[in-house]
Write a structure and sequence with these properties.
Order of helices and strands: HHHHHHHHHHHHHH
Distance between the termini: 34 Å
CATH topology: Growth Hormone, Chain: A
CATH superfamily: MFS general substrate transporter like domains
Structural class: mainly alpha
Radius of gyration: 19 Å
Largest sheet: none
Helix content: over 70%
Number of domains: 1
Number of strands: 0
Strand content: under 5%
Number of helices: 14
Oligomer: single chain
Shape: globular
């Protein structure tokens, strides 16, 4: 792969090195610092993805119209709004800062994926997307490590989170230094395949929910905040490491997607009998969720890049939009079901992930 792939991938690394610390902190801030009920957290997360899906599609569409690099840099710079979450004096301020930055993160993601398509040939894109995801989540893993260490040392959020703006700005610099081609042009998109992948991705979004729910689950089970945020580290680390493995393997897109969806279904179901085993039983399940994410984040955009024709940005926007719809539905349902029982929530997620696998299976047979 050429150096431009690594510039984009390291941009993802530094972005996650910053904002993923905020993502891991957010459920702790709302539920344990400002004492909001869990279902409110679920609604906020649903709103973030529900409105965020509009920004995702808009970012993809505008990247085809004005150029992916310009849109990606603009959105990435505004992701720094997330860093102000730690300075919030009440729950409304925290929600406002978080949502503003998260919407910009959604806005730039399809454009960044389009940049990756523009600097690669079709045969190397699977490896390129796996490398992007691996370095992306590696940055997130390091973010969770320094966050959990800081919480263990009893440092307050208002000292930790504002510093996350620094790696996000470095991330924008890497995007600026990347040399990409002109606006995409080419053949007509294959809408049937795009629609099938988008539907499967939407259901996968429903099934994967927000990482905040496993964070809350482990925090409840262990009564230790830093063990809760460390949950996210296991998720990101497993996903990063497995994506790097995928970058070295030759796996068909449909096989990779079905495998990822099935692993996620099994992991979600495992939360039901293993809740009482505390972190010893829950961390391996979080690792499995990370592996499922690595499959999806590698093969979903790779498949879309092959069938989007001259509208790669729009195709990536549709993919992000469909995942956003899934997150919107999933987090709302998870929040409500979790209020009654964690078993209902994770059982629902498992069944929906299984449905995603069946959609890809029947699409290929068709």
């Amino acid at each position: 792969m050429n150096s431009e792939v690594y510039k984009i991938s390291f941009s993802a690394f530094f972005a996650d090195l910053g904002y993923q610390a905020v993502v891991a902190s957010f459920p702790i801030i709302l539920v344990f610092q400002f004492h909001l009920p869990i279902y409110i957290y679920g609604i906020v997360e649903s709103f973030s993805y529900g409105v965020g899906l509009i920004f995702s599609f808009l970012g993809g569409y505008l990247s085809d119209k004005y150029g992916s690099k310009r849109i990606a840099i603009f959105g990435n710079l505004l992701v720094t709004l997330l860093s102000f979450t730690g300075l919030a004096q009440n729950s409304l301020e925290a929600i406002g800062f978080f949502l503003s930055g998260w919407f910009m993160r959604n806005f730039r993601s399809p454009a960044r994926r389009t940049m990756l398509v523009q600097v690669t040939q079709e045969g190397e894109r699977g490896r390129a997307f796996a490398t992007l995801h691996s370095l992306d989540f590696l940055g997130g893993l390091i973010a969770v490590v320094y966050l959990s260490t800081s919480l263990y040392l009893h440092l307050p959020f208002y000292l930790i989170l504002p510093m996350t703006a620094i790696p996000i700005l470095i991330s924008s610099l890497f995007l600026f230094l990347t040399k990409v081609g002109d606006k995409t042009s080419g053949s007509k998109p294959k809408t049937r395949v795009i629609g099938s992948v988008a539907l499967a991705s939407m259901l996968f979004g429903i099934s994967t929910y927000s990482p905040g729910f496993p964070i809350i689950t482990v925090t409840q089970s262990t009564a230790q905040t830093y063990l809760g945020t460390l949950t996210y580290g296991f998720y990101l680390g497993a996903s990063s490491g497995f994506a790097m493995l995928l970058s070295r393997l030759n796996v068909k897109d449909n096989v990779g997607l079905i495998s990822g969806y099935l692993v996620t279904a099994v992991a979600s179901a495992g939360f039901i009998p293993l809740f009482s085993f505390r972190e010893v039983g829950l961390y391996p399940l979080v690792v499995m969720l990370g592996i499922g994410s690595a499959f999806a984040e590698t093969f979903e955009p790779n498949m879309i890049s092959k069938v989007s024709g001259g509208k790669v940005g729009t195709g990536m926007g549709v993919l992000s939009l469909s995942r956003g719809v899934g997150y919107f539905i999933g987090n709302t349902v998870m929040g409500v079901l979790y209020t009654f029982s964690y078993a209902y929530a994770y059982g629902f997620a498992s069944l929906v992930a299984l449905t995603s696998a069946l959609i890809i299976y029947f699409m290929v047979r068709g």
